[in-house]
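Proteins fold reproducibly. Next comes an illustrative record:
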Amino acid sequence: METKNTVIRDPDDEWVAQHSEEFFKKYSGKYLGIVDRKVVIVDKDFGKVFQKVTKEYPGKIPRISYIPREDELELLI
């Protein structure tokens, strides 16, 4: 029996990738709360971002992305 691998892509993931350069310039060192391809909160504190998106967007699955600072990018390479 042959099985197929199904990849489910989150539209927010693709949207973040398309805007990564812009986000790096505007939001480096911060967390972004993203719902339906919109940045709904920006903060340095993950907990604050998580609380706001879960409280204000019940029933939605938010994406929380950290945008690294330039000095952190050097560590990733």
